[in-house]
Design brief:
The complex is a heterodimer of chains A (142) and B (149). By secondary structure, chain A is an alpha+beta fold. Chain A has a domain of 98 residues: Thiol Ester Dehydrase, Chain A, CATH 3.10.129.10. Helix content of chain A is 23%, strand content 36%. Chain A has 3 helices and 5 strands. Chain A is elongated, with a radius of gyration of 16 Å. In chain B, strands 1, 2, 3, 4, 5 and 6 form a 6-stranded antiparallel sheet that branches. Chain B has a domain of 98 residues: Hotdog Thioesterase (Thiol Ester Dehydrase, Chain A), CATH 3.10.129. The N and C termini of chain B lie close together (7 Å). Classes of the chains: A alpha+beta (142), B mainly beta (149). The interface between A and B is large, with 40 and 37 residues.
Chain lengths: 142, 149
C-alpha cells in the first residue's frame, strides 16, 4: 500500500527514466488469451489487411499496460495508481518477424496535488508514431 | 452508418459476479510481461498490506464490459464491430483489485458522437464488490472507423 517514491522528493518537471518494451506476435496472442479480446486485427494479417490496416496491430490495451508497467515500476506499488487514462492516437504495427515492434515510454511529473498525489504525464512512441496521447496517471506517493 | 443516439444514457443491469483469481492475474501479468511480485506472490502482497495478490491497473478491462457488452452487438445500435478500434480508456481507482474479489459491473452508455469520418462511443462501468464496496470506475471509448461516412 505504499509507494517507494516520496512526495517530498519529486519536483514538477522532473523526468522519469525512459524505458523500451518489445512487442512481438506471441505477446499479442498471449494478450488475446489473457484479456479475452480475440479481435482478429490483433493476430490475423489477412483479416487486418481486409479491413484496411497495414498489418496486425497491437491491442491498445497492451500498449496501455506497458505505460502502466512503466509508471508502477517507478512508483514501486501498483496499488498507488489512483487514476490512469490514455487516448490511443496511433497504431502499434507488429510485423511477423523476430523483432516485432518497440514501445518506448517516458514520463514527467506534471503536477503535485494535495494528499501527496502527483500527476505523471506519459509519452509512448513506436517508431516515429506517438501511440498514446493525453496519457496521464495520478499516483499516491508516500 | 451512424450509431443510434437513442442508446445514449442507457444503463445495463449488473453483471453476474466476476471472481478474480490468482491464476487469472498471473496469466494477465505474464501476457503484459510484468514481473512485479505483487501480482504473483501472495506473501509479498500481504507484506505490502494487501489481502492477496493485486491486479495490474489495466486488468479490469478483462471484465468491465460484462455488463453492457450486449449493447455492442445489438443490431439497433448499428455498430460494425469489424471496424472498431479502441479510442480512449480510463480507470479511476478507489483501491486496487485483488484476488478473491467478487465484482459486479453496471455499465452506462454516456456518449455517442461523430469525429470526422468516425463514430465514437463511450461506456462507463462502475465496478463494485458483491457487498457493494466501490472498487473502480472504467471509461471505455471505442471508435468505429468510417462509421460516419
Amino acid at each position: 500500500m505504499t509507494a517507494t517514491v516520496r512526495y517530498d522528493e519529486v519536483e514538477v518537471g522532473q523526468e522519469l527514466p525512459a524505458a523500451d518494451y518489445s512487442v512481438r506476435r506471441v505477446n499479442l496472442v498471449m494478450y488475446a488469451g489473457a484479456s479475452g479480446d480475440f479481435n482478429q486485427i490483433h493476430w490475423n494479417e489477412r483479416f487486418a489487411r481486409m479491413v484496411g490496416l497495414p498489418d496486425v496491430i497491437a491491442h491498445g490495451m497492451f500498449t496501455m499496460a506497458q505505460a502502466g508497467r512503466y509508471v508502477t515500476d517507478w512508483a514501486g506499488d501498483p496499488g498507488a495508481v489512483v487514476d490512469f487514462g490514455v487516448r490511443f492516437s496511433s497504431m502499434v504495427v507488429v510485423p511477423d518477424d523476430d523483432l516485432g515492434a518497440t514501445i518506448s515510454v517516458s514520463g514527467v511529473v506534471e503536477e503535485k496535488l494535495e494528499d501527496k498525489r502527483v500527476v505523471i504525464g506519459l509519452t509512448a512512441r513506436s517508431g516515429e508514431a506517438k501511440v498514446l496521447s493525453k496519457a496521464r496517471a495520478v499516483i499516491q506517493l508516500s | 452508418m451512424a450509431l443510434n443516439r437513442d442508446f445514449v444514457g442507457r444503463t445495463y443491469p449488473p453483471s453476474a459476479p466476476y471472481e478474480v483469481s490468482r491464476l487469472k492475474i498471473r496469466e494477465f501479468a505474464a501476457a503484459i510481461g510484468d514481473n512485479n511480485p505483487l501480482y504473483r506472490d501472495r506473501e509479498a502482497a500481504q507484506a505490502a498490506g494487501y489481502p492477496d495478490v493485486i491486479a495490474p491497473p489495466t486488468f479490469p478491462i478483462v471484465f468491465s464490459l460484462q455488463s453492457g457488452g450486449e449493447a455492442l452487438v445489438d443490431p439497433g445500435l448499428g455498430l460494425n464491430l469489424a471496424m472498431v478500434v479502441h479510442g480512449e480508456q480510463r480507470f479511476e481507482y478507489v483501491r486496487p483489485v485483488h484476488a478473491g474479489d467478487e465484482l459486479v459491473m453496471t455499465s452506462t452508455i454516456t456518449d455517442i458522437r461523430t469525429a470526422g469520418q468516425n463514430e465514437v462511443m463511450t461506456v462507463m462501468s462502475e465496478v463494485r464488490t458483491v457487498a457493494g464496496e466501490p472498487v473502480c470506475v472504467t471509461y471505455n471509448t471505442i471508435v468505429e472507423r468510417g462509421g460516419a461516412g
